[in-house]
Amino acid sequence: MLKKWIGSVTALMLVSIVALTGCGTSGTNGGSQTTASAPKAADTVSKEAPKDTPSASKKLTVYAALNEDDIVQIQKKFKEDTGIEIEYLRLSGAGEASTRIQAEKASPKADVFVGGSVEFYEPLASQGLLEKYSSPNAKELDAQFNDPKGFWQGWYMGVLGIVLNKDRFTKEFEPKGIKEPKTWDDLLDPAYKGLFITSNPATAGGGYIFVADQLFRLGEEKGWDYLKKLNDNVHHYTPAAGDGINLTATGEFVAGMSWSHDIVKSAKQGYPIKVIVPEQTAFEIGGAGIVKGGANTENAKKFIDWLLTKPVGEMNTKLSNRYSVRKDVAPPEGMIKIEDVKLVKYDRDKASQMKADVVKKFTEMTGKK
């Protein structure tokens, strides 16, 4: 009996040693020690694609240059439609998001940059910080909304406008015989000194497009002369384009410059403001791009595809009052039809190329950052 018991124990120990040796071998990197069964195990892993592999990730990190309620709704709807959870960081403007992506280039933290004008995406693409991707849904859009190089994607449009506080204008300006502004030039009236607010072109997409608008509208020399004169009336330059709406809506300023869709949105909430879309205004193409080196690139591609669908275009138009880049999405309620807007001849490629020089000159001229 004792011999039989010893024999059984010995057999069990041999089996255990073989099993442990097999586990140790499969866990090493040395190819000479890999057993013949290892490739089969690898094949099984690739076919089953467990949830902890990158391809099965259910996360997406987004840097958003959008209003808080916009990105919250996008987060909610994207999770409903795809099962992918968005973790977002809302930044004050496209300039801040761009700066952050540049600072993190050695170790990218974001997968997607969304919101803000495409002028802020071009420099990132030229620095190799965006992943090249052309969505199949982009074929349904006009060519101007698609980057021919494939590094950014347009998904909405925004038109620059003047926000006017109706109460303050009626009380303070009308008695002086001053009429509501209809053009950008009307804002040079000395009556607006210290009562007008706009955004910083270094940090806000709207701020930069406004500056570029004047340079395209009036030409280089006269455009800079206009900006210098307007600076005398500007109280200060805000980090984001939307800030001016809030400050004008609460009566701190009589007028400001911002995006028309955001002005209308605030007006619908009951603030005593109105939007004026002046002649020779400019429009932005709101962008989205995939950050190169992000942890969830495949999910980022799904996000770009999702943004370009009709239901998402309709959702965004209803929520934000922005124009959709899709022709089958109706214009936002309360907004002038895009075909009725008198746009400046805006050279988007040139605007992107001259951005660094323009921002530098503007900062030096105004002495404000």
UniProtKB/TrEMBL annotation:
Q: Where are the transmembrane segments?
A: none
Its Gene Ontology cellular component terms are: outer membrane-bounded periplasmic space
State the signal peptide span: 1-21
Please name the InterPro entries in this protein's record.
Ferric-bd (IPR026045)
The record's keywords, sorted A to Z, are:
Signal
Task: Give the UniProt record's GO annotations in the biological process aspect.
Answer: thiamine transport
Where is the stretch described as Disordered?
A: 27-54
An example of a GO molecular function for this protein is: thiamine binding
Protein name as catalogued: Extracellular solute-binding protein
